[in-house]
């Protein structure tokens, strides 16, 4: 698999996803993602991005301020 922007090689990595809503910041740790080793472009599989949105909307309804969750441990 090649990067869409620079054609660099893509590595599977665990990264942190940060959702910033202004009054509320949610950090999801250890998200499985594909990262370009050349330009750092990050992408998520369809399954992972759907899951991320679920986690974020769930956490956002429970927490205000800064919240930190682990991707693999999130309910
Ligand atoms: Zn790239």
Topology:
Blueprint: E1 10-20, E2 24-36, E3 42-43, H1 46-62, E4 65-70
Parallel strand pairs: 2-4
Antiparallel strand pairs: 1-2, 2-3
Bound molecules: zinc ion.
The site of zinc ion (ZN) has 8 residues, from loops.
Question: What structural keywords apply?
Answer:
75 residues; alpha+beta; 4-stranded mixed sheet; 4 strands; 23% helix; elongated; binds zinc ion
Give me the secondary-structure category: alpha+beta
Q: Name the ligand types.
A: zinc ion
Largest sheet: 4 strands, mixed
Compute the number of strand runs. 4
Question: What is the count of helical runs?
Answer: 1
Q: Give the count of structural domains.
A: 1
Strand content: 35-45%
Measured on Cα atoms, how large is the radius of gyration?
A: 14 Å
Q: Could you tell me how far the N terminus lies from the C terminus, measured between alpha carbons in angstroms?
A: 31 Å
Whole-number average pLDDT?
Answer: 94
* Helix content percent band: 10-25%
What global shape is seen? elongated
* Low-pLDDT runs: none
> How do the helices and strands follow one another from N- to C-terminus?
EEEHE
Note down, in words, how this protein is organized.
This protein is of the alpha+beta class and 75 residues long. The chain has one domain (10-70). Helices cover 23% and strands 43% of the residues. The protein is built from one helix and four strands. The chain has one helix spanning 46-62, and strands at residues 10-20, 24-36, 42-43, 65-70. Strands 1, 2, 3 and 4 form a four-stranded mixed sheet that branches. The model has no long low-confidence stretch (mean pLDDT 94). The chain binds zinc ion (ZN). The site of zinc ion has 8 residues, from loops.
């Amino acid at each position: 698999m090649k990067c869409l922007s620079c054609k660099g090689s893509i590595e599977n990595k665990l990264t942190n996803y940060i959702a910033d809503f202004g009054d509320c910041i949610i950090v999801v740790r250890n998200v499985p993602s594909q990262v370009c080793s050349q330009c750092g472009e990050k992408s998520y599989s369809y399954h992972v991005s759907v899951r991320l949105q679920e986690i974020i909307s769930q956490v956002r309804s429970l927490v205000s301020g800064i919240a930190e969750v682990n991707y693999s441990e999130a309910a």
